[in-house]
Amino acid sequence: QVRLAEAGGGSVQAGGSRKLTCAISGQTQVSYCLAWFRRAHGTEREAVAAIDRDGSTSYADFVKGRFTISKYISGNFMYLQMNFLKPEDTGTYYCAAVRRSLTPTCVVKAGMSDTMDFWGQGTLVNISS
C-alpha cells in the first residue's frame, strides 16, 4: 500500500500559477500509475493528468498546454504545475495511485477514477476572476 498526501492548494487569481505536491509513502518500491484528479463543486471527479512508471504523461484536453505533471521518485513526490489558471479550474485536487501491474494503461480517460486504489485527502484550489 501507499499513502498519498497533497499540499499546495490555496487561492490564486485567474492567469496565475500554482504548484501542487503529492507526497508518496509506504510501499514505494512497487511501480504505480500516478494521477491527479479534481472535483469541482457539484460535479463528478475527473482525471486531470497521469504519469506512468516510464515517465510518459497524458492530460485532459481542458488542461493541455497549461498543466504539467511530473514526479521525483527518489524523493517520492509527484507534482502538478498549473499555469494560466482559470476560474473553472477551481476545485479540490486529489492525487491517486494504482499498482501498474493492475491496470493495462496509465492514461487520462473516462472512468479512470474507478481504477485507482489509493487516494490522498485532497487540497482545495480556488481561482478568482
Descriptors:
11 strands, single chain, 7-stranded mixed sheet, 129 residues, 0% helix, 50% strand, mainly beta
Would you give an account of this structure?
- With 129 residues, the protein is mainly beta.
- It is 0% helix and 50% strand.
- It contains no helices and eleven strands.
- Strands 2, 4, 5, 6, 9, 10 and 11 form a seven-stranded mixed β-sheet that branches.
- A hairpin with a 4-residue loop joins strand 7 (67-72) and strand 8 (77-82).
- The radius of gyration is 14 Å and the shape is globular.
- It starts with a strand and ends with a strand.
What's this entry about, in short?
With 129 residues, the chain is mainly β.
Low-confidence sequence ranges: none
Question: How many angstroms does the end-to-end distance come to?
Answer: 40 Å
Share of β-strand residues: over 45%
Percent helix, as a range, is under 10%
Structural class: mainly beta
The main β sheet shows up as: 7 strands, mixed
- Helices, by number, come to 0
Mean pLDDT over the residues: 94
What string, H for helix and E for strand, traces the elements in order? Answer: EEEEEEEEEEE
What Rg do the Cα atoms give? 14 Å
What general form does the structure show?
Answer: globular
Q: Number of DSSP strands?
A: 11
